[in-house]
Amino acid sequence: MKKSFTNLAKKLGYEDALGLLYHFPRRYEDRSRWEDPFLLDEGEQVTTFGKVVDQSIKFTRSSKKIIEIILQIEGSYKALKLVWFVQRYMKWSDWKGKWVIAYGRMTWKSKGNKREAQMMHPEYEVVEPEEYEEAGKLKMSPHLNRITPVYPLREKVKQKALRATIWEIIEKEQLVFPELYEHSQPRMSRGEAMLAIHFPESLEEVEQARRRLALDELVCMELALVRRRMLAAKAVKVRGSQQYDLVNTLRGVLPFQLTEAQLQACREIDQDLSKEIPMNRLLQGDVGSGKTVVALHALLRSLESGKNGALLAPTEILANQHFKNIKRLVEPIGVHVELHTRNNRFSGETLFSSQPTIYVGTHALIQGKVVIPNFGLGVIDEQHKFGVLQRTALLGKGEAPDLLVMTATPIPRTLCLTVYGDLDVSVIQHLPPGRKVVKTVLRDRSSLHNVWDYIKKENARGRQAYVVYPLVEDSEKIDLKSVKAGYEELKEIFGENQVGIVHGKMDAGDKDESMQKFRSGECGVLVATSVIEVGVDVPNATIMVIEHAGRFGLAQLHQLRGRVGRGADQSYCILVDEMESIDSWKRLKIMEQTANGFELAEEDFKIRGPGNILGTEQSGLPPLKVARLPKDLPMISKAKKLAEKILDSDPELSEHEGLKKVLGHYWTMAEEVANN
Ligand code: ADP
Ligand code: MG
Predict the structure, then answer these.
(1) Pocket probe mutation, ligand 1, options 250, 251, 253, 256, max atoms within 8 Å of Cβ
(2) Is the pTM of this model over 0.70?
(3) Strand residue runs (E) in 121-192
(4) 480-519: per-residue pLDDT in tens?
(5) Hey, is 603 helix, strand or coil?
(6) Does ligand 1 lie within 6 Å of residue 285's CB atom?
(7) Considering every ligand atom, which ligand is closest to the CA of 541?
(8) Atom of ligand 1 nearest to the CA of 291
(9) How far is Cα 14 from Cα 8, in angstroms, rounded to an integer?
């Protein structure tokens, strides 16, 4: 393989040139049809072919070089001008009498009362007269006269060079792509699909090839999941020796009764904990459904059996809140609580405590050097904000610890099985009693003054409001109100001391102070970014105003809306947006119409795909390169069956070397996750 191929592959992050074959096109351009360019409108793209009748070099006023070629279009009497601002790599040579095949965008230039057809910067290829006139047909080309692949690029990699390289590898090398597993009557073999995805005969063939490769990809994903689950089922827990009775004591001091749904989740957890293998459970419950007490139940159970527990939260604000709430509840019953965040470190790397302890923290808690003594159970709050590697890191702090992950971002059932296929699931279906549904309304900016008046009234009655903006600082590029500008404006309206601010770029101490002021009711309005999206719980807040609401995803809006309606009072969510397009209006309208997080998630999933629900790297699965969700969801159950069949007969994949290689580090990761 040429060295330049390998270099190119490395630039794109592949180890060797063959890796380029896994660099799949982003899209395709149909350059297979020749159309009469003179029938096309400004901006339309076309492939054209003709003989060079004239060529010239010109200079612009700023003495930039311009090459112009006049092409006598084959099968037409008209001539088309091709124009390039010369780049260094473009060679000037005598093209007269040669043939050129070009692909580009039509532009029409007015010249007096005539209009001249031009193509600016077309992609082109030169064809020698004998190649066309004598052979009577055009040679095969990777770039033109075909369905042309367009690849995702990185800096310094040129589309044409990349395409030519992949073409040459496919043409010159004797490539074999063996099937990865036994497969009953595939419509296309893996080998055919690998070639067709790069240089297809037709657009229909692209889709066939894509689906063929997507199945392989989904089988790999399912293999990792099924294996993770199989291995986890083998790990054996180590139990502590002390015995306490904490759960019952807590129930006695809780200011409310657990709902039936919460109790059910607690029972499921207790069942898991009584088994020899570690718990591996996902707790799903809409915003405000009361997952925290269920987490606390699990943590206390761990302490009861003589092991410490840890609760991991994605933001410092949330970790602080959990720390304070949990401490308030459990310190009186003899449980110690410690906070470990970036700004709140313990001295040394081993966290000390001889008392039964709950460690609450952010990412800082799972950093490599931190040792959590006698660690037996971990809870990850807002799991969708973490990656699988962080899950692994937390599990690595103990010997086969139990794990509970929680999420309020409802995941459509189908997708849930897919990405959390290795977890048992508990769902809290209903909110605690007495909650009123948050009323949601859409407003445009012109009615903001009414909104502010309303907040003033509510403030006077002792209620509080959040006002959320999408950006931290004013940006010149996009005309969006930033949180800082909003803060200044609202201070004018409500008074200096009535308004607090919190955003991700603030110091932890300042953040905490702002939250504290708001929590204690000292200020009536909190201006914020979406840092408050997850978990923040101030029951006295009854109004959520979201500016530029269209900038947020539905699931995110739902999370933000979930910050209010946490007490017994009627709460309101006011979505402010210019609603410039029907689409954005429709999307926000869905918010107005449904309060159900699961329905919203389904909608969001349909509109934006899974990436925005799960976060791209957050699911911890091999990133899907060819499979498309939700489009390919029906293929998943097939993939899962195939994966189970493969692992049943060959648990170590020793007879499926190809598969093992493709799975690469995900295979090992499944092992690590399971072994920890
Ligand atoms: P989330 O599921 O969004 O994490 P939280 O655990 O923060 O929800 O609970 C939301 C609010 O509901 C908290 O103020 C909590 O104290 C309260 N809460 C939880 N369970 C109950 C219950 N069974 N009855 C009444 N209030 C409850
Ligand atoms: Mg929560």
Answers:
(1) 256
(2) no
(3) 123-127, 147-150
(4) 668 889 999 999 999 999 999 998 888 888 888 999 999 9
(5) helix
(6) yes
(7) 1
(8) 2
(9) 9
